[in-house]
Amino acid sequence: MKDRSRLCHAHRCQPRGSEGALSGVAAHSIIAVLGEGSPLLLNDGVVTYRSAHLEGVESEKIVHSSHSMQSDPATIQEVRRILREHVAVQ
Fold first, then answer.
1. Residues 31-42, mean pLDDT to the nearest whole number
2. Surface-to-core class of residue 33, CB atoms within 10 Å of its CB (0-12 exposed, 13-18 middle, 19+ buried)
3. Most buried of 17, 24, 41, 69 (most Cβ within 10 A)?
């Protein structure tokens, strides 16, 4: 079966395997994991850390949460940090 998963950055989708930030686009990663221990061995109940991890991002934040982490306080704090960082650059 062909892998149809895609990564979307700045409204452009690229086939899986072409990970990394697009030239000129700042990319950050927030990855949810459940449990304790090495993130390499963990998952969020849906996606493994290894699958979610992207090379070439400016930052990576691991949040101890389930897959639906958008309302987790640590996720919200990290999104705010990233937004403030990019506002300060402009």
1. 96
2. buried
3. 69
Q: List, as one string, the DSSP characters of 32-84.
A: EE-SSS-GGG-B-SSSBHHHH--TT-SEEEEEES-S--TT-HHHHHHHHHHHH
**Residues contacting residue 80 through CB under 8 Å, at least 6 positions apart:** none
Residues 16, 30: Cα–Cα separation, whole Å: 18
Closest CA to 42 of 65, 60, 18: 65
Nearest residue to 76 (alpha-carbon basis) of 90, 89, 65: 65
Residue carrying structure tokens 């390499």:
40
40: pLDDT strictly greater than 90: yes
Residue whose structure tokens are 């950055």: 9
Q: Write down the pTM of the prediction.
A: 0.71
